[in-house]
Amino acid sequence: MESFTITSKKVLTLVLVIDKAKQMVLLGYKKRGFGAHLWNGFGGKVEPGETTREGALRELEEEAGITVKSEDFKKAGILLFQFENDPVALETHVYKSYEFQGQIRECEEMRPQWFAFANVPYDQMWEDDQIWLPMLLNGQDPFYGRIYLKRKPVEDIQEGETTAAVNTSTSTHVNHSTTMTGTSFTTAQPKSGPFAMWDYQLVHSLQGVPHEIALDGTIASFEN
Ligand SMILES: Nc1nc2c([nH]c(=O)n2[C@H]2C[C@H](O)[C@@H](COP(=O)(O)OP(=O)(O)OP(=O)(O)O)O2)c(=O)[nH]1
Hints:
Blueprint: E1 8-19, E2 24-30, E3 39-40, H1 52-64, E4 74-83, E5 88-97, E6 110-116, H2 129-137, E7 143-151, E8 178-181, E9 195-204
Parallel strand pairs: 1-5, 4-7
Antiparallel strand pairs: 1-2, 2-3, 2-6, 4-5, 7-9, 8-9
The chain binds 8-OXO-2'-deoxyguanosine-5'-triphosphate.
C-alpha cells in the first residue's frame, strides 16, 4: 500500500437530503471542478473557524438553495478518501436530512435533481458511492471507512470504453461491529470519473460517528 501513504488530510463535507415518504434522494450534477460531470451530494471544503456541521449546512445552501434545521441534520458517517500517489487524504464528513426548508435551485456549480432510490445513477457517480450510499439510504448508518482510489489510464475514461481491469486485492479488517472489507469492481465504469476504486474498508459503527479518522486509520473518539 506504499502508493497510498498519506501525510496530511483536508476536511470536506457531503450532504444527502432524503424524501423518506417518496423514497427519493436529492443529488446534484457537478458542472465544474473536482468530480465534474458526476452526480453527488452537496458539499465541499470546511472553512477556517467552521465546524464540519456548519460547513455542510453552508454548502447545502450555496449549492442547492435549501436549509435544514439543526435537529434534523444528522451525521451519517466519515469517509477517508485516499488517492494513489497523493499524500493528502480527503476526510469527508457525511450528513443526511429527511427534512429541508426553502426552494431547491440550480447554481453555477450544481444542478439538483431528485432520484428514486431504485434509480440512483451509480454509473455516473464516484465508484465508491455504490458501496456506502445504499447503507445511508437504508438507514444502515453511521458508518466510517477508508476508500482507496486510483487514477484511471486516460484511454479508460474515454466515451465508448466499456471495461477496465482494476486491482481486486482484499483489504485487512478494521475492528468495531460489522466490518465490510472490500474488493473493488472488476469493471470500471467509463462515466464514473477519472478515478477507479481500488479497495475499501467500511464499518457499520455501533459506537456512533467518529470525530475524525487519524492518518493511520484509527478512531480516537466517537460523537455519541
Ligand atoms: N460521493 C463522493 N463524494 C466525494 C468523493 N470524493 C470526494 O472528494 N467527494 C466529495 C467530497 C466533497 O463534497 C466534494 C469535493 O469537494 P471540493 O473541495 O472539490 O468541493 P468544491 O469543488 O465544491 O469546492 P468548494 O465548494 O469547497 O469550493 O466531493 C467520493 O468518492 N464520493
